[in-house]
Design a protein that fits this description.
Oligomer: single chain
Strand order of the largest sheet: 1-2
Number of strands: 2
Strand content: 5-15%
Distance between the termini: 65 Å
Helix content: 55-70%
Protein name: MFS transporter
Keywords: Membrane, Transmembrane, Transmembrane helix
Largest sheet: 2 strands, antiparallel
Transmembrane segments: 20-39
Order of helices and strands: EEH
Structural class: mainly alpha
Organism: Streptomyces variabilis
Number of helices: 1
Number of domains: 1
Radius of gyration: 21 Å
Length: 53
């Protein structure tokens, strides 16, 4: 896609294909965080509704 020069001398490569590894990592992290949030929303009310003996 586009390459813009940086002060470090390496060009910045834009686009999903050029940054597929970072994009894949972003998707994996978002799936894990979303799954944990969903798990919390379903289990915490169940724990809170139990009465202690």
């Amino acid at each position: 896609m586009n390459a813009t020069p940086t002060t470090a001398g390496r060009p910045v490569r834009l686009g999903l294909r050029e940054n597929s590894l970072q994009f894949t990592l972003l998707v994996i992290v978002n799936v894990c965080v979303g799954g944990l949030a969903g798990l919390e929303r379903t289990t915490v009310p169940l724990i809170g509704s139990r009465r202690s003996a």
